[in-house]
Amino acid sequence: MAEQTGVPPAGPPASPPLIEGRGITRLYSMGDSQVAALRGVDFRIFLGENVAIIGPSGSGKSTLLHILGLLDRPSAGQYLFAGVDTDTLDDDRLAVLRNRAIGFIFQSFNLVSGESALENVAAPLVYAGVRRKERIERAEESLARVGLADRMHHDPSQLSGGQRQRVAIARALVTRPAVILADEPTGNLDSRSSADVFSLLQELQAEGLTLVTITHDQRIADRAARVLRVEDGMLVEHDAPAPYLDHAVAPAGAGGVVADEDASPTPEDPGLRTLGLLAEGDAS
Amino acid sequence: MSYVEALRLALRRLRTNPLRTALTTLGVVIGVASLVALIGVGEGTQTAITNQIAGLGTNLLSVNAGGSVVGGIRGAAGSASTLTVDDATAIAALPGVTAVAPEMSVANAVVVDGRTNTTTSMTGTTPAEATVRNYQVQTGTFISDLAVEKGLRVAVLGPTTVASLNRTPEAIVGQTVTINGIPFTVVGVTQPKGGAGFTNPDDAVFAPISAVQSRFTGASTLRTIGVSLTDPAQLAYVESEIQSLLRYRHQLASSASDDFTMVSQDQLLSVASTTTATIRNFLIGIAAIALVVGGIGIANTMLVSVRERVREIGTRKAIGARRRDIGRQFLVEAVIVTLGGAVVGVLLGIVVTGAVGSAVNVPASPTLAGIALAFGSALLVGVVAGYWPARQASRLDPVEALRYE
Lengths: 284, 405
Known about the structure:
heterodimer, A: 6-stranded mixed β-sheet, disordered N terminus, B: 6-stranded mixed β-barrel, two-stranded antiparallel ribbon, 14 strands
């Protein structure tokens, strides 16, 4: 699987980037003064890429991930998701886009206790308006994919850290998103679970998923095709943007974004697909 | 997220902390139960009092002897000797009057039956008493015209009086008892009227007015004259007729005030129902306060719950929940708690209504209107109590929420 994340082919990208930031700035007010977490960052991430974002703590990499994940809006600059200027989208449309196109993995798992693994994994489908029967099927499928078919009805508190993070990964996968954003996915795990989760993520990426990881873990950074280093709110790109044409043509993970609405997705045009989703999301 | 999903989520959530759910619900349970019970008891009391007043007689108008005025001080009603048997006879001749019962009263009548005795009040009257005051006889007969004419020492007892003498109605009819030392033959026992309140119509002794006058009072003065009207619509007319008649008979100067008073059954009824309605509304007000306090408890728990679940809210927003999805989740949770409390409260209220009713001897039963009112108020309280926490939850910033420890 390492081979698939190898050297990007040269030449201009064949399809528009999934994620594109232009001069993204994020300011926070601290009393009277303003602190810039990001100062004019430009980046592009293409379908099927494996990108690691690294940087010292306080460098702004978490802020960057929140903006990438449409949880936060830039103070200045332009953020295009699937070619759409996200500034034109209201909060509800952003929520729908997060629901359909983005899968989150958090350092502290963020599973809801009191709900079984299956219910946790199915939660995004509730907001997507998927019928209960199909929700359960897809959540079971997703849990089976991360190797937890035998833990579906366990409460998160009954699971080990590694298992919890795998439940979280199953939850991120269940909507078949275009991109998975992982925030220190192995940060709270012991080395064995960490290796476990790490290899699972690499496998999924190899199957065509776009993966953006914030990490301190040098191994993840090493395995990423491209490393973006954030320092003091500025981006130091180590490698050039790498559109993976092979993946972009048929990314299994991304193709599923519209699987429940559209039997024959057109993976070549992620922007339009995602927009089509938005329209349907409004109806739900 | 549909309401069905929100409901599913809320039920799952409430199950995870059953003790808190139960304690939160308790406030609403108490509020709703008291509403149902107090409305039931209130309605029951009102019905009982209305029935009791209706049982006093049909189209009844009571003429009471007025207070005597001695040295400018007005005495209690009945203290003056203004009404006489002749007044009663004169009233009976008026148009619109069906029956007239003169009532001469002996306040303390000691009835002795062998070794048992009881103290009650005795009324000297005529057969018309049965019509005017709506008495039926269960055993034997009421006072006859002959007994009044001849001044026979016969008596009709109320069922409570009979029970006080440890007798059954069948056993006492035909027996001789002494009343204040004078022997009387019991000729009948009245039907129970189911009395409650200050004066019990079932604890009474009736005797011919002539016998009472000759054996006890000596004078022909009456405490009350019971008048039964042909048509209740003529009440005002008959009242004014009686007033003129008595003023003429008592030779009152035009400047003097009446030496008698008249009270109609309708007046009693409206006074009584106004009083009971006031008391009932007061009780409902207290129950409503209990319900509001229950609602505040729910709002408080929901606010705490929002605080505790900030990260969950952040996570849900990250995986695609919109503001209204989050708001709905919390609102539905508050409404579920309230409605659950309302269901338990209604059941408890029904039980309490029965218990309170039998404790205070009132035919109290939970009313449908009371239950509907309690349920409706609970729903309103739930929505109001849940609204603010739900709004807070829905407005949380996802980034802040995810960072929250």
